[in-house]
Amino acid sequence: MPRPTRIEYKGAFHHVMNRGRGRQTIFHHEKDYQAFLSVLQESHEQFDAMIHCYCLMGNHYHLLIETPKANLSRIMRHINGVYTQRYNRLHRTDGPLFRGRYKSILVDEDPYLLQLSRYIHRNPVDMKRPLVAQLSDYRWSSYPAYINQAEAPSWLFRDRIYQMQGQRQKYVGYRNYVAQGVDEDISRFYNRGNYLTVLGDKAFKESVREETKEQNIEQLRKVLEDRPSGQRILELVAVIFKVKSRDIKSCPGGKRVSNPARAFAMYSCQRYGALSLKQIAVLFNLSHSGSVSFSVNKVKRELVEGQWLSEVKQLERGLYIVK
């Protein structure tokens, strides 16, 4: 499966996350936390990264970064790479620390930036076993600096969030805002499991297309469009194979009958729609997911052997090209 495209342009805001490989702890002691904060300072000084929020959470981290130079990839290469080196020196280990590439979500500044800052800062208490009783007591996030209970580092940019809040008493106002809890839309967005790459409305996505028109348009469309529904995929597969969608969904009884369109549609629902095996089984009128797994894996093997290339090309054209 191809890696998702990184969307970068001048002045973009990104919510960046990464966690330890195998969910291992990446911050054990105060020296680890301080080492990571030093790397954030370096990313600002060397690459002009503007850090608006951060929260370091034991086995993962959250950052809200603005990129005046459209260089998020370079910034994150420094943050993850240099911290891994320092972690290994501190703990006398070697090898990779993180699970892989960082997760990056492009954020629409208005209206989501303020809400996202609250989501990031509430991480230590919005969990099954809160790390602290009072959010202000958690040392390893930018929240104490936002409410003026800790000195703000020179590389932490708080003014944009304060401006969006629009209150005279910015410290008390922000404390009260965070205490209200995460906005329902933000909570729903992050509870989807497979995070979308863009947090914003259709108008924002269209503006991103304009900002990034020099990049690979086909790849950008894949990340800017919401996941297609299983029914949408079925309809396109039916057109490609010149059959009716109900014939693809039907489950003939008795002896197994070869149905290439059905197998390809199951694979496509998982690959492009991010449907679970159980969801695909329901869509294709199956009582269990075993048959789905068999068909999906069969198509995957055949793709490696060079089959299905024409069908994949036609499907992606139908899914991602705006008429």
What can be said about this structure in brief?
By secondary structure, this protein is of the alpha+beta class. The chain contains 15 helices and five strands.
CATH fold descriptor of the largest domain: Alpha-Beta Plaits
**Number of H- or I-type helical stretches:** 15
DSSP strand content: 5-15%
Morphology: elongated
Helix/strand/pairing category:
alpha+beta
* CATH top level label of the largest domain: Alpha Beta
In total, the number of strands is: 5
CATH architecture classification of the largest domain: 2-Layer Sandwich
Biggest beta sheet summary: 5 strands, mixed
The pLDDT mean sits at 84
Radius of gyration equals 23 Å
With strands numbered from the N-terminus, the spatial order across the biggest sheet is 2-3-1-4-5
CATH homologous superfamily grouping of the largest domain? Transposase IS200-like
Amino-to-carboxy terminus distance = 25 Å
| Element-by-element helix/strand order | EHEEHEHHHHHEHHHHHHHH
The low-confidence parts are 216-225
Structure explained in plain terms:
30% of the residues are buried. The protein is built from 15 helices and five strands. It folds into two domains: 12-223, Alpha-Beta Plaits, CATH 3.30.70.1290; 228-320, Chromosomal Replication Initiator Protein Dnaa, Chain: A (Orthogonal Bundle). By secondary structure, it is of the alpha+beta class. The longest helix has 20 residues, at 72-91. Residues 216-225 have low confidence and may be disordered. Helix 10 (230-241) runs antiparallel to helix 12, helix 10 crosses helix 15 (309-320) and helix 13 packs across helix 14 (290-304). Residues 229-299 form the Chromosomal replication initiator DnaA C-terminal domain. Residues 9-123 form the Transposase IS200-like domain.
